[in-house]
Amino acid sequence: MLNNKATYSAIIKAEAKRLGFLSCGISKAEFLEEEAPRLETWLNKNMNGDMHYMENHFDKRLDPTLLVEGSKSVVSLLLNYYPSQKQTADSYKLSKYAYGNDYHHVIKHKLKSLLYFIQDEIGDVNGRAFVDSAPVLDKAWAAKSGLGWIGKHSNLLTQQVGSFYFIAELIIDLELAYDHATTDHCGTCTKCIDACPTDAITEPYVVDGSKCISYFTIELKENLPKAYKGTFDDWMFGCDICQDVCPWNRFSKAHNEPLFNPHPELLDMTKKDWDEITEDTFKKVFQKSAVKRTKYSGLKRNIKFLKE
């Protein structure tokens, strides 16, 4: 039986790498003091729009010990999704993260494998896996764990591989050796702020979610606001503009996760194909994709908005 925090941490990071994660960082499970006033201000300004779930579990979002009883450590993990091929130029656009299988399922499987490994190697360790759908501030934990810094577009950034990756966590009741936050390398650059067509980045490091193209095309269930006509730049599901223009993303490397490879028909679909997409084709192409979240009717609504 191992009994050394540094050794525990090293074997967890080695297994995370073996499972295909880009990187792994570890933080002490404790109240996120710096994030509390930021989150409160963001919510008070209604920057969550219709994402009312962001108002729920305020305390749990800031304190992992309320999510997992007796938790000691937050193990943050990054999984690359940057594709080797992109959609054809004559197409309405999908966020690159949605090209392949729904990341929730892919990552959850890997996280569970990691938790079982920890239990097998170390002993009686309890915890939970989190992928984007629970009240956990993923980016804050990843930054605290030294995996990158939160950029002016509010995404996690690293000097080595940019920002095209998913963030997930294991919150466990095992004490480990903790990593430290890294430094901010955005400097005076404002490319993401300047490029956002809906002015969603209201100031450096603050994104008004209710103005974001991703919010409009995925989260908003009502009619799209006419005031934003002509500003979506052909994005029909999500938006990658602030990441695409970021200088650090010139270091993005293609992922090697087969489940993130796009459906064979997806990359060649033209605007004409999207205009004529049937529900059967939607189900076939997006059978296992995160795009299902917006449903066929939602995607058609978005495409119609782009054409008007």
Automatic annotation (TrEMBL):
Protein residues bound to cob(II)alamin: 61, 132, 156, 167, 214, 239-240
State the superkingdom. Answer: Bacteria
Q: Which UniProt keywords apply?
A: 4Fe-4S, Cobalamin, Cobalt, Cytoplasm, Iron, Iron-sulfur, Metal-binding, Oxidoreductase, Queuosine biosynthesis, tRNA processing
Which positions does UniProt annotate for tRNA binding?
A: 221
Record pathway: tRNA modification; tRNA-queuosine biosynthesis
**Residues forming the catalytic site:** 132
Q: What is its EC number?
A: 1.17.99.6
Q: Record-annotated residues binding [4Fe-4S] cluster 1?
A: 186, 189, 192, 246
Compartments it resides in: Cytoplasm
Tell me which InterPro entries the record gives.
Answer: 4Fe4S_Fe-S-bd (IPR017896), 4Fe4S_Fe_S_CS (IPR017900), QueG (IPR004453), QueG_DUF1730 (IPR013542)
Gene Ontology MF terms in the entry: 4 iron, 4 sulfur cluster binding; cobalamin binding; epoxyqueuosine reductase activity; metal ion binding
Q: Which reaction does it catalyse?
A: epoxyqueuosine(34) in tRNA + AH2 = queuosine(34) in tRNA + A + H2O
Q: What do the Gene Ontology cellular component annotations say?
A: cytoplasm
Complex and partners: Monomer.
Similarity comment: family membership: Belongs to the QueG family.
Q: What is this protein called?
A: Epoxyqueuosine reductase
Source organism phylogeny: Bacteria, Pseudomonadati, Bacteroidota, Flavobacteriia, Flavobacteriales
